[in-house]
Amino acid sequence: MSVRLPPSVSTTRAAPAQLTRAAAPSAAVTAPPAGLRKGDTGPKVKQLQDALVKLGYMTKAQVATGPGTFGPKTEAAVKKFQGDKKLPTTGYYGELTHAALKKALSSGGKPPVDGPTKPPPTNGGKFTKPPVISAPSPNYNERGGKDIDSIVLHHTASNNGAGDLAWMRNPKSQVSAHYMVDRDGKIYQLVNDQKRAWHAGNSALHGVPTDMNSRSIGIEIVNAGDGKTPFTEAQYKALTQLTGYLKQQYDVPMKNIVGHADVAVPKGRKNDPAPNFDWNRLRKGIS
């Protein structure tokens, strides 16, 4: 139905429409109900995608077509969000992910991304996980519900990365670490972050007895540990990227990034990562 304006306002026909458009509030982006998974379609999926765009996990271009399809890109975005919120990275939008998404949206979130997603820069405390070579070790168990709040650096006591790696993967050795940084800067991951690697032994943190294995990430650096063998440039670069990422990922305070020498009990039992390790360089690189 059309409505004619009275003669007294006939000269301002465009103004009311313009004012109406300006006054109309933009629709709020909210978290859809839980229970979405890969293969689902419909408005609830579109609502999820809009929320992921607002938080910076998807681009507008990725969700501009279709009625809302939970495809590989949406699944990848959900997994990235879950990882950032320290949730199981299943890609399934369940109750825990719904609660985390709702909280993130209520706090304002990140600005939408209009173009292709770029990895965050490595300066200013922003780190991505560096490339790692999978080398699974059987020497681990469960953390027992402990949160990760520490990083412990070790030396392998040799300059033979291949031999060190083989030893930590040998079930008879009963030792392991989450990562090993070889002389050439290659990073090997032996134990999943969420599992308890066997690297610290009897330990205390800041003088308080504790089970460091249950609360820390262990990093072995291939080095004789004699204080004379230099750590390589490639090792410092790889270690800075890895430690910076782990510090950021698990919100580890700088004071809890320590050497085995700092936590081993009794005091003096260990000298890791070695007297000639440049702690200042590492701390400056990850601060």
Automatic annotation (TrEMBL):
Keywords: Cell wall biogenesis/degradation, Hydrolase. Residues 113-122 have a biased composition (Pro residues). GO terms for molecular function: N-acetylmuramoyl-L-alanine amidase activity. Its EC number is 3.5.1.28. Residues 11-34 have a biased composition (Low complexity). Belongs to the N-acetylmuramoyl-L-alanine amidase 2 family. This is N-acetylmuramoyl-L-alanine amidase.
